[in-house]
Every structure is written in structure tokens, then in C-alpha cells.
Amino acid sequence: MDILLQAIRPTLIFPILLLAALFLLFGSYWRWILSPHNLHDRIRRQTGEVLPSPAKPRFSFAGRCHPLERRDGLLILLLTLVYAATAFFQLGSFTNPQSFHNFTETQTVEVEFSQPFQLTRLMYYPGLGTGDYNVEISADGSHWSTLWARENEEGTVTGYYWADAEGYEPSYAMPQHYADLFKWLEITPENTLEVRFLRITAKSTKSPIELGELALYDTSGNLVCPDQPGEASALFDEGDTVPESPSWYNSTYFDEIYHARTAYEHIRGIYPYEISHPPLGKLILGIGIRLFGMTPFGWRFMGTLFGVLMLPLLYAFLKNLFGKTPVAFCGTALFAFDFMHLTQTRIATIDTYGVFFILAMYYFMYRYLTLPAGTPFRKGAPWLFLSGLFWGIGAASKWTVIYGGVGLALLYFLGLWFKLRDWPKVEEGETPPVFRNLWLIQTLAFSVLCFVVIPACIYTLSYWPYAAAKGDTSLGNLIHEMWKNQEYMLTYHQGVHDTHPYSSRWYQWIVDGRPILYYLDYTSVPGSKSAFAAFSNPVVCWGGLLAVVSLIVHCIRRRCGKALFIVVAYFSQLAPWFFIGRTTFEYHYFPSILFLCFALAYVYNDLFEMGLPWMRKSVYALTGTAVALYAAFYPVLIGLMVPRWYTSNLLQWLPSWPI
């Protein structure tokens, strides 16, 4: 019994209360809305009309796209500015080293200090290239001591120390491995020696091997630099960029070690290290590096900006769908204050761009689908072109957009069928069949251009940096590089089966069962911790799942085109993961979370249309709860240092949440 009581966490009260509130709300919603007779009787009682039993409608996407109003612009601006302030807050350092010393194979660099000092700690900042460094120090220039690494039986480094190098092979104890690049690394040797001379020799496994800064500290904690560094000037020229300690704020973390590095390699004209995803996402990421330098703020800027830009587009989409300003505002707020939306857009990976382009391609497809049957081809062509354009840009950024493309194609062909089925009859004085057939031929031909030819061109052209790095930008080599990379990516993703402590499957994502921890520091400040993980706001995750179930029922009983549109979009992003056996993580659910917000907005719209004041208030209450949770969890979404009691007693709702 005592063991059971210890296993029950006090924080379980929070998810229990939230789930109880959600089931209470959805129970009322299902009772009133999912029964057509209840809705029919309520209308009869309110209007006094005797209505016939409602006939089951036919599926159709056609309908009115509600325009934005002036007040919508103000609400969009408000939401965007509030979210942007939280997203860009302490995004990353502006001042990381920008100059690098390029070591040649086995090159030795030696520097002399004007005064001897006791070396207690060193920090260094690796650039491109991998290898190791042999670091030696001397008090007199004749007797040298080498930095050695102490390892346990498993080969894990447990410490460093200085020892005589005479008679031994160089130790090369200071690493610069693929996971070490563009991050501050720290070494504190077990023993302290006097230093007047220092020399460092590189051994490269992948050239170039570059070192951005080398920081040496004396017993007082002062940074010591040589007066005349000579050829090693790049190692000591940016001492003002050296932080007090390494952290996510000044260094790469998680998959930034791949994507930020690859973006920088594209800028430098170097054949990229990370080739497991299409290039365009890294090219977009590189714009921030060009603007702000190879700094954490620079490599995270574009992703965060795209995360902000999603909100106006989402608001317009929801307003077009439902026509209600409160629904558009609350639905957009759900996504704005979703945890994963913040965490994923602040990390320099390519997922953000994929989600943005998924949103855009579905938006423009919806604008096309809502055109009534009989609409001239020229009025639908711009929406098809824009949908295909963003589909092509997205596919060239990340393959997960291709999953969305399957849903896009299904909706397109369903819409085509609905338009042909509902085409105005000749006897009604409308367009003759010959014009319908011409419209169909024009639409299909133009769709091939928009969704096949143009995306194929965009996808192939995105490989220009690969071809340029090889010195051959001919069309033949461009196609060769593109095709070779497709073969590699397919083989790579099929072979990713490594175990990971934070891996999870799709059935865990849909209930927020196993977030992935991106960063953890619980040693810098006693009693406090800095951590953040990728998971969803429980209101969005759990409420959205109930909303999706509701929409599936609406598809069956109401035959609602809007519900069908959202359900297809949601499952086109989630369903492929049912069959993918590779190692997966909760951040793969990010595109689906977007459509959870659509599903909740659909329910919100119904709650408003029911006309009951308490149900309207429940919309604001649920949205306000999501915002409140965002504020409460904000420290563990961006890595702020907070007391450990705060996370353990208030935020760790489930034992599997690593926060």
C-alpha cells in the first residue's frame, strides 16, 4: 500500500481534472450535436416551425469562404505579437565566434604568454571538420606536459589530467567529433600546472578541421590570452564571445548539430554532411545565418520566424472555414500556445518549414475546393497553382510534406468528383456539357503542371548546392546528385533502428505519452534545472483527439465536407507512421497537431451555433486553460533555469514526462 501511495504523484490531479472537464464538455456536445433529431427538435422549438425530418446531405466542399474583417486584422496582430515575443525571447546568442583557424593535417600551432599562470580550465569552440587535438603546455619551453583523458572500462571519458608526454605517442585527448561542432566545450583537468607556452596539434578525420576559439583560465577565473598569438590569432581574437559555461543558449543541441551545420556548409560551398533530408529546408535556415552570422540566433531565426508566420495564415484559414471571429481567434490561439509549436520552431531543424508549407498548400486547396460547380477554369487556376507551388516547396524541404501530399491529392480528386456531380444542368439554362468537358481537360492538364512538373523542377533545383560543391552544375549532374540522394535517403530512413531513451510510437504521441527531451542541465545551479522537451499542450492533444473522433462521426452522419477535409488532412500526416518501423519521436506528430487545432475549431464553431451561453463560455474557458498551461510550462519549453520543486510538483503530470 505504501509503495502504491508513493507511486501516485500529486501532479496527477492536474491531468485528471483536465480530462474530466474535457469529457464533460464533449459529453454535452455529443448529446446535443451528434444526434440530428436533437438539433432538429431544438430548431423547431426555437422557431416554432414544423420541419420535415432532415434528409442526409451529400458530401460537398463547395461553400462560402468568409472574408476577413477589420477586427480580424487587429486580433491577428495581437496574437502574432504576443506569440512572437515569447518565441524570440532568449532565442540564442548573437555573439559566437565567427573566425576560425583552419588546421592542416598534423599542423602544430604554438603560442607564448607574457607571464606564466596556473591553467585550471579551458573552453573551446569547434567549427567544421572532425578529428582530435593534442594539447601540450610548458612552463619553460623545453619540458612539456600533455592533456590526457581518463576512461572507464566502457571507454567513456570520466576526466582529464596533465602528464609528462615524453616517451608516449600524442594523446589527442581534446575531441572535435560530429556531435561537438558549433558548441562550446569545457575541460577541467584534475591537476593544475604552470603555463608559459602552449601548443596544439590537430589530427583530422574529415577536413577541413576548424577551431573557432580557445579560452584558458587561471586560478582566479580570469581569461588569459597571449600578447602575440601570431598564426594562431583566430584562436584568441573573440574572447568577448566566450560564455561563462556551455548551454543551449550558446551552442547547438539535438539535431541542430546536423541542420545548422549543413546550412553553413551550403553557404561555404562545401558538400554537406547531413544528406538525409532534401536541401531546401537547410537553404531557408541558412538565410538567418547570412543575416546574423553563424550564431545560435542566426541558425534559429528563420524557423522561429516561420513559426510566427503560421499564425496569420492559420487565422485566415479558420475564418474562411467557419466565418466566426471568435472561432478563428480561439482556434489560432490553441496552435499559437501549443507547446510543440514553440519548441519545434525555436530549434534549428527543418520540421517548421514542412509544417508551414503543409498549412499553405491545404489553405489554397481549400480555397479551390469551395468554388461552386460550374466555376470557370480561370477562377480556380490561381488557387491550384499556389497549392501546387507550396506542395513543391514543402516536399523539397522535408519528406513528411509528401505524406500531406497524399491527403491533398485525395481531397483534390474528391473535390473534382463533387464538382462534376453537381455541375449545373443544361435545362437550368447553365453551361452545356461541352464546356464541362473542356473545363475538366483544362483542370487536369493544369494540375499536372502545378502538382507534378513544377514541384519536380523545384525539388531538382534545390540540389544546386550539391552540384556546385562538386564543381559541376550541369543539368545532367544536377539530376544525378538529386537521384543519388533519393536512393541514400530511402536506405537511410529504412535503416534507422537505433534504440533511444526518448523514442516513441504514434499511439504514444496522440496522448502525449512520451515526450522527447532535447536539453537537460541540473548541475549548474544547485536546486534548479534547465530543461525542455517536445510535447503538446494537453488541451490541444487530448481535446483535439476527442474533436477528431467527433469529426469522424460528423463525416458519417452529417456528411460534412469541412469535417472530411480536416479528418483527411489529419490522418494523411499520422497514418503513414502506423506502418513505419524506424525509430520515431514525438516531434513527428507536429504536423498532425496543426489539424488537431482545426478539429477543435470545428467543435468550437458548433458550440457557438448551438446558442447556449454556457457552451460559448466553455470555448473561452478551454482556450484560456490552454494559454494558462502555456504560461506555466513556458520555462520548460525554452530552457529557463527554474527551481526543481516547480517542475516536479507542478509540471510533471505524467511519470513519462522528462521535465
Summed up, what is this model?
The chain has 659 residues and is α+β, with helices and mostly antiparallel strands.
Task: Characterize the structure shown.
This protein is α+β, with helices and mostly antiparallel strands and 659 residues long. The chain has helices at 2-7, 13-33, 36-47, 70-88, 256-268, 280-292, 296-322, 325-336, 339-346, 351-369, 377-395, 400-421, 433-461, 464-469, 475-494, 506-509, 538-557, 561-574, 590-609, 613-633, 635-638, 644-651; strands at 101-103, 108-119, 121-126, 130-138, 144-151, 157-164, 174-176, 185-187, 193-206, 209-217, 223-224, 516-521, 528-534, 642-643. Strands 2, 4, 5, 6, 7 and 9 form a six-stranded antiparallel β-sheet that branches. Strands 1, 3, 8, 10 and 11 form a five-stranded antiparallel β-sheet that branches. Helix 2 (13-33) runs parallel beside helix 17 and helix 17 crosses helix 19.
Descriptors:
globular; 22 helices; five-stranded antiparallel sheet; six-stranded antiparallel sheet; 14 strands; alpha+beta; 659 residues; disordered N terminus
Largest sheet: 6 strands, antiparallel
The number of helical runs is 22
| Helix vs. strand class | alpha+beta
> What is the overall silhouette?
globular
Q: Radius of gyration from the CA trace?
A: 29 Å
How much of the sequence lies in strands comes to 5-15%
Q: How far is it from the N-terminal to the C-terminal residue, by CA?
A: 27 Å
- The residue fraction in helices comes out at 40-55%
Number of strands: 14
Tell me, rounded to a whole number, the average pLDDT: 90
- Low-confidence regions: 1-7, 43-51
